[in-house]
């Protein structure tokens, strides 16, 4: 299958941006969502000039239910029932034991990673079901399967994403819609910079001493799932750097 209309949330950076580049190479039209308008605009211009694809952008905070509803209502018609929806917008804040955690960090993660994903999915899935086709890709995390010190609430949000994916497999069964859950390990993006509230030096240490995944590595999994024939459903993918055996064991040669 060759997807023709793709929506990607969190497309201004990292994995989402890499997905946009990968779908651009396939010639897909895209609707790219994020809060940073300038970044989306630049990406859209570059994709259009490189691949000749049509790119719609939406400056939206997925935590804002009303804004998500307005964004969906104002989508160009073919995106109302996309061939692929990539639920990628997400973040981590803090890396401290739960007893020291900041409630504001927890709320931001829960509101973005769980509630934001639900708002977007609830808005678009009925149209996909009505058209009896489409793929929803949820970017969860290895952190939702295996716990690590300080990962507590972030891991819980990703465990929720995984459970939402597993539940959706059942809810959409028989509708023609497919669900793909992806659990990446360490991917070098702006993720750690955001987690450490802008501490770029600390963020860089996360990816030192081994070769981490790139956004492109994850995007290729998304594209693989999106280009299978209609009778094939890639339900789950766990992808890590070769150096990472588990969430708590990465072979670092520092
Ligand atoms: P980045 O920080 O590079 O990208 C995160 C993207 O999410 C940005 O485009 C950001 O855009 C967007 N975003 C964040 N909050 C919101 C919001 N409230 N509304 C709309 N968009 C939002 O990190 P990654 O690319 O690494 O992260 C992408 C996904 O992958 C996340 O869900 C993350 O949890 C997951 N993941 C990452 C891993 C990693 O090691 N990097 C591993 C496993 C999973 P903007 O700020 O412009 O709104
Ligand atoms: C991001 C991967 O292990 O840094 O979800 O939490 S990890």
If you had to describe this structure to a student in words, what would you say it looks like?
The strands form 2 sheets. The chain has a 7-stranded parallel beta sheet, with helices on both faces. The protein has a two-stranded antiparallel ribbon with strand order 8-9. It has a single domain, classed as NAD(P)-binding Rossmann-like Domain (Rossmann fold). The chain has helices spanning 14-25, 37-51, 65-73, 103-131, 152-171, 191-195, 200-205, 215-226, and strands at residues 5-9, 29-34, 55-59, 84-87, 135-139, 178-184, 236-239, 244-246, 249-250. The termini are far apart. The protein has 8 helices and 9 strands. The chain is of the alpha/beta class. The chain is globular and about 50 Å long. Residues 9-16, 34-36, 61-63, 88-91, 112, 116, 139, 141, 184, 186-187, 189-191, 194, 215 line the site of NADPH dihydro-nicotinamide-adenine-dinucleotide phosphate.
Q: How are the elements arranged and paired?
A:
Elements: E1 5-9, H1 14-25, E2 29-34, H2 37-51, E3 55-59, H3 65-73, E4 84-87, H4 103-131, E5 135-139, H5 152-171, E6 178-184, H6 191-195, H7 200-205, H8 215-226, E7 236-239, E8 244-246, E9 249-250
Parallel strand pairs: 1-2, 1-4, 2-3, 4-5, 5-6, 6-7
Antiparallel strand pairs: 8-9
The site of 2-hydroxyethylsulfonic acid has 6 residues, from loops.
Highest-level CATH class: Alpha Beta
Structural class: alpha/beta
Order of strands, widest sheet: 3-2-1-4-5-6-7
Poorly predicted runs: none
Give the ligands present. Answer: NADPH dihydro-nicotinamide-adenine-dinucleotide phosphate, 2-hydroxyethylsulfonic acid
- How much of the polypeptide forms β-strand, as a percent range? 15-25%
Shape: globular
């Amino acid at each position: 299958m060759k997807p023709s209309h793709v929506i990607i949330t969190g497309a201004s950076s990292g994995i989402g941006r890499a997905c946009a580049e990968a779908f651009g190479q396939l010639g897909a039209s895209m609707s790219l969502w994020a809060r940073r308008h300038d970044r989306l605009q630049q990406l859209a211009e570059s994709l259009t000039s490189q691949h000749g694809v049509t790119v719609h952008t939406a400056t939206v905070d997925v935590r804002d239910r009303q804004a998500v509803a307005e964004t969906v209502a104002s989508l160009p018609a073919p995106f109302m029932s996309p061939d692929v929806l990539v639920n990628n917008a997400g973040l981590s804040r803090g890396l401290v034991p739960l007893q020291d955690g900041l409630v504001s960090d927890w709320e931001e993660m829960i509101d973005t990673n769980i509630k934001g994903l639900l708002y977007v999915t609830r808005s678009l899935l009925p149209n996909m079901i009505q058209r009896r086709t489409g793929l929803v890709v949820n970017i969860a995390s290895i952190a939702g399967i295996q716990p690590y010190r300080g990962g507590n609430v972030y891991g819980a949000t990703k465990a929720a994403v995984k459970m939402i994916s597993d539940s959706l497999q059942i809810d959409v069964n028989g509708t023609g819609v497919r669900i793909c859950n992806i659990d990446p390990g360490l991917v070098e993006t702006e993720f750690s910079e955001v987690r450490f509230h802008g501490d770029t030096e600390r963020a860089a240490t996360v990816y030192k001493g081994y070769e981490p995944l790139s956004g492109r590595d994850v995007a290729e999994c998304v594209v693989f799932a999106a280009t299978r024939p209609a009778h094939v459903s890639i339900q789950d993918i766990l992808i890590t750097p070769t150096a990472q055996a588990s969430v708590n064991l990465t072979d670092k040669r520092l």
